[in-house]
Amino acid sequence: xxxxxxxxxxxxxxxxxxxxxxxxxxxxxxxxxxxxxxxxxxxxxxxxxxxxxxxxxxxxxxxxxxxxxxxxxxxxxxxxxxxxxxxxxxxxxxxxxxxxxxxxxxxxxxxxxxxxxxxxxxxxxxxxxxxxxxxxxxxxxxxxxxxxxxxxxxxxxxxxxxxxxxxxxxxxxxxxxxxxxxxxxxxxxxxxxxxxxxxxxxxxxxxxxxxxxxx
Length: 215
Fold this sequence. Notes:
- With 215 residues, the protein is mostly helical.
- The chain has two domains: 2-107, no CATH class; 114-214.
- It contains ten helices and four strands.
- The protein has a two-stranded parallel sheet with strand order 1-2.
- Strand 1, helix 2 and strand 2 (60-64) form a beta-alpha-beta unit.
- Helix 2 (41-53) packs parallel to helix 3 (68-74) and helix 9 (189-202) crosses helix 10 (206-214).
- The longest helix has 19 residues, at 126-144.
């Protein structure tokens, strides 16, 4: 990966053959860091700073990433300089379309906040919404509150018929068991969101739910 990126840098500096020439250049770098290669985030980030951000060789530079670590490595921490030299956008996608929206540096969310952002948008893909609900509860109860996530769904209040599909998905969908991964086909956004809210309510964390769902 690193060798490929170094080769890309050299191509950007010049041309592949002596016969070619160019005056203005726009460079697009699309997520050069693998999700499994966080060890290279700093190295690639320094290369981009040195070869692209700290030079006037190129007219424009677009960098796309889904990695928060990589994002923070590249964005200018100086507010004034960042405003003058960098512009931030978020690429959004739901079942209707894909679109760009302007973004402030302060708008950047961690993974947990991003899950809530998706949950609030009923136009997102059903499987994505349901999976984000599961990720939120798994993180909140297992890691923050140190509760057994599986025991949450044993509460009598969650045994009603209207919660059946929600309970089945939350209890069976797991990346650790290949046979449990399925594409959810029966999905009612309102009933899932009602059940999702009910979990926080019966566990005594309705204030946390109200805060996250409204921000």
